[in-house]
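To whoever picks this up:

The parser on our side crashed when reading a file containing two proteins. I've narrowed it down to the boundary between the first structure block and the second sequence. Both blocks are reproduced below exactly, byte for byte. First block:
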Amino acid sequence: MQGVGYNAVADNVHNYPLQLAVGVGIVGALLLYGVFVWTAARSARTVFGRGSEPKGVLLGAFWAAAASYLVYLVFGLSVVGSSFLLWIAMAVVLASDAAVFEVRPPRWGRALAACVAVLVIAGVAFQAAAPLADHAYLVANEPLPASETVPAALSAVRLAPYSYVYRTQVGLVYTDELLANIGLAEQARQQGGDPAPYLEAAKASFDNGVSALRDAVAFTPADFDNYVHLANLYNIGGQVFDASYYSEAIETANQGIALSRNGPAVRLQLARALLATGRVDEAIEQLESALDMDSGYAEAALWLSDAYASQGRVADALTVLRRIDVANPGQPDVAEKIKSLEASDTSGP
C-alpha cells in the first residue's frame, strides 16, 4: 500500500495458476492443468517422433507455442484476446491423432437436436441482458448530467440485478446528483435567488443515495468500498442538512473498519465525522493511522493538517504537508495549504 497507494487494486496476481487456484479452487486448477499436461503427453509422440513428414515441423511449432504460453502464464495474466490461441494450438497438435467413429443417428436425434437448439438460442437471447447492462453501467460512469447517469445506473441494476458493482454505482450517481444540486443552491444564494428548490432536490438525491448504498451494503456486506461511500454520503448530509447524520457516518465507518482495519479511506470518513462533532483528538488518531497505511494519502494529510492547526500545532501541520509534498509532489491543494500555514506560522507571536 505504501508503494502504490491505497487505491491500487490487486485484481490479478500476475500468476495464472495461483489466480486460478484462488478463483476456482485448488482442485479446479489441477483439473485444468491436467488437461494441459494430458495434451502435451498425448501429442508428444506425434510431434517429436522421427519421421520425414513435413507436418511434424508445423505441429512442433504449435506445440512450442502452447508450451511457451503456459510458461508465460506463470508470470502474467490470462488475456481473453490471446488465450483462445492456446486452445487452438492444443487442438491442432491433437487433431492429427484424432480417431474417427461413424455413428448412426437415432430416430429421436433430430427432435433432440431441435430442442437443444431452441434452448441454446434462448440462452443466448437471455445473455443479451448482460452486455446491455454493462453498456448502461459504462454510461453511468461517464461525466454526464445526472438526468442521464441516474437512469443508466438504474437500468444496469434492472438488467443484471445480481451484480453488486451496479448497485454501488446507483449510490454514486445519486451522490454526484446531490453535489450538483448543492452547487446550484449555492449559486442561487450568491446571485440572490431562492436556493430552496435546489436544496429540496438535493435532499431527495441524498435520500435516494442512502437507500441505494444501504441496499448495496445489504447485498454485499463484505464489500468494503460501500461503507466508505455511505459514510461519505452521511458526512455530506451532516454538513448540509442535519448534524445528526454525523452519528450515522461514525457508525458506518466503524462497521467498515471492523470489516477491514487496513482501509485508510474509511478512517478518513470517520475522522471527518469526528471533527464535525468536536472529537478532534480521536479524529487525529484516525488520520495518523490512515497516513501510516499510505504515506502519500494527500486528502488525509490535508484533513490532519487542519486538525493540527485547530489545536495550534502549526509546526506539526507543516511537517505532515511537507512529507506529502515530497512523497506525492505537484498537488496544488497541498502547496497552497503549506503557503497558508507558513504565513500564519511566521506572523504568529
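<<boundary where parser fails>>
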Amino acid sequence: MEGYFDPEVIKAAKEMNFSLIRWGGNFMSTYHWEDGVGPQDKRPTLLDRAWGGMEYNDFGTDEFMSLCRLVGAQPMICMNLGSGTKEEARKWVEYVNGAPATPEGARRAANGHRDPYPPTVWNWGTSSGETTRWDGRRPRAMPPVTWNSTVVRKQALPGATLVSCGPGADFTPAWTEALIKQAGKDMSYLSIHYVVRLNQTVAKPPDADAQAAIAVAIPVGMTNL
C-alpha cells in the first residue's frame, strides 16, 4: 500500500508530527464505506452528491488506515449521518476494529488486512452532516440526533471514543443544548465546527497571508465567545 502514496507527501506529513488524522468532510453525508473496500478496479464510480463531482472510490478505509500508519497518526473517521443507517455504521466499526472471526473482520482479512486496525476515533457527523440529512435530491434540516449514538458505543465497540459534531455554538445554542441532552452520555467529545467564509473578510479577496491569519484567529476568537 506504500506505493499508493507520494513519498514526498508522506515525508512532509511525518515531519508535521500529526497525532490524529480525520477522514471526513461534507461528502461523508452521502458516502457509503462499502463502496470503497475490496479490489480498486471493482469499486463503483459514483456521483459525489455533496460537491457535484465524481467519486471513484479508489481511496477507501484500508487506504486511509495505511496513510495513518505511515504517518504515525491515530485515525479518526466520520460516519454517514446523511444517507447512512445504523447497521451500516455498525458494520463499518466492525470492519475497522472487529476480530477476524466477525463477519466484517473476515471481510477485512480477505482484503489483505487480517489484524484489527488501531483504536479509531469515530466522528458522529460532519461539518454539514450534523445539521443536514440527504433526502436523495438535496440536504434538508434534521434534529440534533437522528439515530441513537449507542449503535457505536454499546453495540459495535464498547468504550469507543465518540466525537459528536455540531455547528458553531454561538449560532445554534438551542441545537447544541439539545444534542448534549439527548446524546451527552454517549459522547466522548463535542466538536464545534465554526465556519468562516472568505467573502466575509475585510480583504476581498484575501491574499495568502490573510487566509493564514484567519485560520490562526479562529480558535482565539472562539475562546472569547
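After patching the parser it read the second block fine. Confidence is low (pLDDT under 50) at residues 129-141. The longest helix spans residues 208-222.
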